[in-house]
């Protein structure tokens, strides 16, 4: 499985419409364009729906172009952009627990053949709360440190770790409890599954 966070398959979504504008901005704005794929993946972890995710990415790119002069050269461009995207997400009203509905479809019963399918993992991941999805995406798929991920989420490291642990526990219960024959995926496979979920 590829070891990079792939962009959305759609070639005509709203985020792409900002590519010409970004390319005209000059350095480090060229780096902004290179981060559209990871930004889409992060947005998908937050809202699940691809169209809604692209709306947040579009807003984040526009904001980044406006505030590019505030970007410190020594800072990490991806972390900075993730923070902007997270802020765009925070200002939009959400349902229920403060977030959008997060289930694409009903959870299917796991197969009893020793392997987790991408479809099963996707259903289980999307059924997690947004904070759990976000924590797992940032620390597993994006391989950010807990400190950097907590900075993006504007929460403490302890809180971020608690969400990640809760997400892992929920996934384990959904996919493995009552199925002792099922093989738990390796860390590399887990990263690949997460990246597949948010880039499909």
Can you walk through the features of this model?
This protein has 200 residues and is mostly helical. It is built from ten helices and no strands.
Looking at this protein, list some descriptive labels:
single chain; 200 residues; mainly alpha; 10 helices; 58% helix; disordered N terminus
Through-space gap between termini:
13 Å
Helix content range: 55-70%
The major beta sheet can be summarized as:
none
Mean pLDDT: 75
Q: Radius of gyration over alpha carbons?
A: 17 Å
Element string (H = helix, E = strand): HHHHHHHHHH
Shape by Cα distribution: elongated
User: Strand tally, please?
Assistant: 0
Low-confidence stretches: 1-26, 96-113
Fraction of residues in β-strands? under 5%
- Please identify the structural class as seen in this structure: mainly alpha
Number of helices: 10
SSE blueprint:
Layout: H1 19-24, H2 29-34, H3 36-47, H4 50-66, H5 77-90, H6 118-126, H7 130-141, H8 146-153, H9 157-176, H10 187-199
Task: Sum this structure up briefly.
By secondary structure, the chain is an all-alpha fold.
